[in-house]
Every structure is written in C-alpha cells, then in structure tokens.
Amino acid sequence: MTTLEQPLPARTVARYAIGSLGTGGFATLPGLVLIYYMTDTLGIAAITAGLLVTAAKIWDVVIDPVIGARSDHSLAVTGSRRRFMILGGLLLPLFFILTFAVPSGMGPGLAGVWVLLAFMATATAFSLFQVPYIALPAELTSSYDQRTRLLSIRVVVLSLAILLFGAGGPALRSLGGENQALGYLIMAVVAGVLIGVAMLVTSRVAQRGIPRPAEPGTIASNYKAGLGALKRSPAFRVLLLCFALQGLSTGVMLAGAQYVATWVLHSESAVTFLFVSLIGPALLFAPLWRVVAGRIGKERAFRYASIMFGIAAFALLGMIAAPGAWIYLPVALAGAGYAGMQSLPMSMLPDVISHDAKTHGEGSAGIFGGVWTAGETTGMALGATVLTLVLAASGYVQSVAGEAVTQGPAAINGIIVSFSLVPAILIVLSLLVFRRYPLRQQDIDAGPNNPAAARTEGAQ
Fold this sequence. Notes:
Helix content: over 70%
Strand content: under 5%
Order of helices and strands: HHHHHHHHHHHHHHHH
Number of helices: 16
Structural class: mainly alpha
Radius of gyration: 21 Å
Number of strands: 0
Shape: globular
CATH architecture: Up-down Bundle
Number of domains: 1
CATH class: Mainly Alpha
C-alpha cells in the first residue's frame, strides 16, 4: 500500500462527517415543514407555496456554479476553500431564523414574499458551505476505497441529522403550544444555530496548500466552466442526472411526510415515527453498504440500494386501501435503501472528479461541486413542486393557524400517490439513466496526475 492509499486519519473523517449534521439539517427541516408552514399557518395556497420554494431553489441553482468556480479560485490563491465554508456557517443561522419569523398579522401575499426573500438568502449561505464541502473528498484522499469509507461515515451522520431534525424539529415546534408561529420560531432558532455550528466545525478540515496566482474569471466564464465540466465528462452527466432524479424522489416523500402524518394517519406527531422508521435502518445499513460495495463494487451496490428503496415506495401505495401502522415497515425498507442511495453516489463523485483531473488537469473540483449542488438542489426543489401540483390537482384545502378544515378523499389519495407511486417511478427512471455510468475501480485508483497525489508531491 502506498502512502497515498493510507487510511484517512480518524479526526479528518470525523470532522468531515460532522458537516452532514448541518447539510442534513438544512435539507431535512425546510423540506419537511416549510410548505406545511406556508399552507397551514400562513394561509398560502399550496401551488403558490410550492412555486415560492421552487423560486428560491432556482436562485440556488443559478449561483452554485459561480460559487464553485470562485471556490476553486480561493483554493488557488489562498491554498484553502475554508473562507467560503466559514462565511456560509456564520450567515445561515440568521437567515434561517428569519425564514420562520414572519410577523403576525401579515397577509398571505406579503408573508409569501417574506419567506421567499429570507429563504433565498438562507439557500445562498448554504451554498457557500455546501459547494466546497462537496469538492473536498477528491482532495482529501486519492483512494477509491477510502472515499467510500469517508462518505459512508458521512451518511451515518447524515442519517442522524435527518432523525434529529426530522423528529426534533416538529417536537421543538410543539413547544409553542397553540401559538404555531412561536413554535416555528423556536424550532428555527435552535436548528439554525446547530446547523451553523456543525458547518464551522467542518470548515477546519479544509486543507491548506501552497497559494499560487490565479484569475477569478467573470461570471460568464464561471458558467462556461460548469458547462465544460458537463460536456467533457460523460460519467459526471450520468451520475448527476441519476442523483437529481433520486433527489426528486426523496424530495417528494420528504415534503409529503407531514401531510401523510396529518391527513392519512390522523396525527401530526406521527411524522416523528415516520422518521424514526426511516433513519433507524439507514443508520444500520450505511456501514453495511460500504462492505457490500467493497465486495461487488459501488456501482452494483448502488443499484441494489435503489431497487430496495423503489420497492418500498411502491408498497406504500397500499395506504389507499388500508392506511395504518403497517406503513412503518416499508418506510424502514426505504431507509435501508436510502443509506446506499446517499453514500455510494457521493463516493463516486470524487472518483469522477479525479478521473477528470487525470485527463484534463486538476483545479476543477469546485466547479464540479457547484454543478453537482445545482443539480441536487434542482431535484429536491422540484420534489416540493411536484407535491404541491398533486395537492392542487386533487383539491387540497389550505388553512391559516387555528382554522379547522376537512380534506376530501381525492386530496387524501393525492397525498398517498405523491408519497408512494411518484417516488417509485422516479427511482426506475434513475436506474435507467445509471446504466450508462462508465467508471469502475480500475479507472480510479491513484495515478501520478491524481489531485491528491499532486498536492502531496507539492508539499514534499
């Protein structure tokens, strides 16, 4: 085993993984409660709420490639991506709190504008951290297997974050009692601070290298670089599209979980049990998928994980005929598959980046990270949009805090379909796309032009 293939230090792995406490929290909590907050507390129509969230995410998609290119520039001239990560960790808590701090008495129209602007600012702060965070694994190790280890442990923390924020967020919200607005504010303060602290801790893992002169380029050139990465790397195109489709699938389910709890299981608190059922198996299976990947390869293991998730999602369609506690079993199966769906593609991304570096030269990890984050964000954002389209088409009735409403059978069935059949179909589509993924371990193992190798040689 060469020096480049030595195991990553446990401290590095732990610090990197802690970042997923922040990224998982931000991905989970707004996806779970923001649409519901707008439709059932602020009185905003479902389709409008979905469009507002989508608009904020579109902004995120627009800025991600620019942040990625500027992150590469920062790495070149300062030797580290740390500045971007610290800035994101400091700004996100403030804007996250503002998102759920709509003044009382504000009408639905103005409340929607408030949420849109605050959430756009929050998404910007998140991208400042997330884009360089995604780029780091390609720079921390050149080993195919060590990247699987790094990302599988990250997914364990990500799963804990989903459980913590998915179950703890609604619990914090309940501290407001009858005052729903106060409950959401308490939730936002606690969650926002925790997310920010996790991001700041992880920023310390960003390596320091040797600065070199570099031009930042124009915004137009930043977008051109992102398109160039997509154009020259078939592996990146396939992996990104596949992951975006799966993000859309999980985004629909995440946004619909609170609706299933409230209107199908008839208990708002049931969302906590849904998340426990999902994350318990995910925690157990994240290390197991690493073992499976070591035996049969990341690519085959990823297919099996995706199939497991898709079967579980389809089984939930049975809620139309017999809603009840039985649904926690397929949700648990989905959690087992979800662990592999997250860790394995994320460990393939640095493989794609290093393969591109060996072919076209290093210095583009941030660009890849920016485009990847844009694609992932698009998938998750459209998940909320798909849900609201289904709700609007099925006649879902929005309400303001304290108002009692009744949903018709069509609306209930719409919730169920968006939580089961739609995600299952999206998983099938993602697997059809993934059939064209070309890279294998022999294409990835360390070579002289690997980014990590080059960095190590430069430090000697």
